[in-house]
Request: fold
Amino acid sequence: MCIRDRVSTQSTGAFPMNCLLFVFFAILPATIFATDILLKPLSATSGLPEVGMVLVQGAGIKPEAYQSIAIEFQNALSDYYALWVGIPEFPGDVAEPVVLDDGIERMLDTMYKAGFDSDSPLVMAGHSLGGAMVQTWTDSHAKNVTAQILMGSFLTRVYKTDYVFSYSVPTLTIGGELDGLARATRIAEAYYTQILDPYQDQSSGEANFPVTIILGVSHMQFADGDPPNLVLKRDLLPEVSYEQAHKLIAADAAVFLRTRLNSSDADARNTLSSRLQQTRTFINPILDAFQLEGYHNFRPPCLCQNDTCDPAPNCTAGCPWTNQISQPTMGSGLNGLTINNRDSFHDVWETQPTVHLPKINNSCKSPTGCVLSTTTITQGVYHTGEDLEIWKIHFDDKLLDTGFFPITAVELRTKMSSRQNIYAHAGVQNPNFDQLDGGDVRCGEINQKALDYANTHVGSDTLNRFKQYGQPYTIAKDIDVCPAGPCWIWKELQYDETESGDAVQIGSPQFSTATDYPIPSAAGYHYCKVLSPARAVEWMYVDGLRENYSLNSTNTNKVFIQGNVRIA
Reply:
């Protein structure tokens, strides 16, 4: 492809005096020979209002990899606006904070010298790490920026205060269904945060911070060419061509920009509204599962001082999955018995002001017509960091927000009343503990229901893809631990790949006590590490596809890409 109006710029960059010299000299050569790309407006758009865009590259992806999609942006707006696009190159092709300002300012200076009017609207855009970095620049230059487009990236949780979202510049977030790095589940969270959250004005969120997901599109399809190593290792297989992907991405970007540049453009507003509805339909199964988990990035757990937490608008009292599934399943098997459970989120190791324990608040003479009122304790555990290969730094920070890792709970630590205890309170005479709570299966029964939920609630295309290419979860026997709380607390839910690699077995550490346990205050409990339905759903959308449906798949019979990672 010919490069139209390609402009090379050279700069030594600008570094604070306190930067280490070795960092300066390490990046200096790459900066000197940085090659920025400038695409002037299409000739057919001469005379139309001008708009400028600066597009920040993803890590390890050359600026020229964005030329095709930049041209599609120009084409998509060509009936309305004349679009300039500048794509700066950063040292090492990584838009790190220390060089971000210099690169953007250098690109803008080049655009102005080439004829772009500095009074014309400016749009910032970024892909992947470039999107994560450019949003900080945009926020600090809000008065100079009309709109922003994030591709394969999203506005991070830094812009939430007390779980209320706020950002200074209207921003479109575009995700790919098969993005293996900025996962679709994290894009779904962005949709909820920016549009659906009860604290947000939905109509304002739809207009100013819309979120769309494009079906069949992978992370690399926001650019072009050969993927860098990290993308090659993590991205999923695309199901549309790069040309199709670029047109779809540009179409979403164009209608958003039209709404920002002309508030009277009713056609653009209607098209954007339709895309939002399509995206909502796609993400509904994800959001529903998040709600069942009591997802902590929607609302934090209340962690009240009492055993039982009351609902509050700014926090989540307890885990809906525990109420609806976990404790009722643990106490199941009696006809006519109903269990009304009220769960509360607590740190399960907490001893002050009290040790939080499950309770049964009433009893019946027989199971028929019996309604037991129970309370339980749940703690959602989230893993947010591992070896992040871009920087080779080990992260374990709750603020890490890349979309790179699973965002759902790795386990729900759940303290429940045992089946024996439930049966005794339901009027069953002398229920047998070994028969009812032994056999290492009770926690597994609950976890099987998480798998059943995922299989019956994900979208049909997602389900069919996963059935054909996914690496399924299966339920193993429960894992006995020593008869003490700490043994159960610190033994994690096990995710063990089978020797053949055809499945991942889920094993729940369990700790249970009979109703005649020598320590009365610890009697009649059954503790489980519960698989979150949201984790089961996220596995089917993203991580469970990596083995057989990713760029790095070792199963060559299931690789549907050719040449420079394009669908034939």
User: Anything to note?
Assistant: Residues 266-293 form the longest helix (28 residues).
